[in-house]
Amino acid sequence: MFPTHLRGIHQMENSMKQWSAVTRWLHALIAATIIGQLISSLILVPPDEMEEATFLGKMAMETHEVVGLLAAMFLFLHWLWSFLSSSDVKLSKLFPLSVSGFRGIAADLAYLVKNKKLPSTDQGSGNLASLFHGFGIIIASIAAFSGAALYYVMDFTAKGFENPLFEEIAEVHETIANLMWFYLIIHVLAAVWHEYSNDRIIKLMFRF
Ligand code: HEM
Ligand code: HEM
User: Fold this and answer.
1) Which residue range is the domain that position 119 belongs to?
2) CA 14 to chain centre
3) Pocket of ligand 2 contains residue 188 by CB under 6 Å
4) Is residue 4 in a domain?
5) The domain spanning residue 174 has which CATH number?
6) Taking CB atoms and a 6 Å cutoff, what residues make up the pocket around ligand 1?
7) Which residue of 55, 79, 173, 204 is most buried, as measured by CB atoms within 10 A?
8) 8 belongs to a structural domain
9) Into how many domains does the chain fold?
10) Per-residue pLDDT tens over the stretch 102-141
11) Alpha-carbon gap, residue 169 to 93, rounded angstroms
12) pTM for this one?
């Protein structure tokens, strides 16, 4: 805990660590569309069972396609953004796979094990969190890319969803989507844990 006279400085430091507006907007759009995808996936009726589908099941499938393509576009923009030198989510940050990056990850893990809590933004290197965020972008991108491939096979090949390729891609899509659930739950729990420890990252990330 910070003494009262230092709390202002701590808050100032924290707000200096806030993410850029581009990152915050892209993150919010990606989070909203992916959550929408996961929810619609619980209701949708796959194209090969469409004949017996209820109105809700059909609508959920339509929504899943449109929102999924939007998610794919936001993820594509996020990748473009991570290639720019002015970005605060450069590839080297999202994937700290260098000697110093690995040292940071090891130090963050050691802190976690020793203190039984996540290192706050000013206690750790941030590399462990960044690596986890990098995995999130990869998982979300594979989900969106495989979904877009399903869309292509369904709508732009002669056999449509009866094409054997459809079943194969659908398996990849569903497996990776299960990982997406897992990622989302851990990511949100970690964010809430930070927030609960007075490290106001949710407030900073969702400030518009
Ligand atoms: C962007 C992230 C996405 C996530 C997290 C996601 C998630 C899911 C999940 C969990 C299912 C399984 C539903 C079930 O168990 O039956 C599913 C199925 C499906 N998704 Fe997505 N999806 C995404 C993007 C897309 C996109 C971009 C499209 C196409 C435009 C798409 C098209 C489909 C189709 C056609 C199915 C049914 C596949 C089957 O026959 O089983 N998805 N999706
Ligand atoms: C599946 C959907 C989501 C994905 C793929 C995702 C991915 C990411 C990524 C890649 C970052 C790093 C910044 C960036 O590159 O944009 C990040 C940061 C963050 N996310 Fe998410 N996110 C998702 C949903 C959420 C949700 C629902 C919350 C709500 C609690 C959340 C809270 C945060 C916070 C607070 C940060 C900042 C972490 C820090 O300051 O160290 N995210 N997320």
Assistant:
1) 20-205
2) 22
3) yes
4) no
5) 1.20.950.20
6) 34, 37-38, 41, 46-47, 64-65, 68-69, 71-72, 143-144, 147-148, 150-151, 170, 173-174, 177, 180
7) 173
8) no
9) 1
10) 999 999 999 999 999 899 877 888 899 999 999 999 999 9
11) 31
12) 0.91
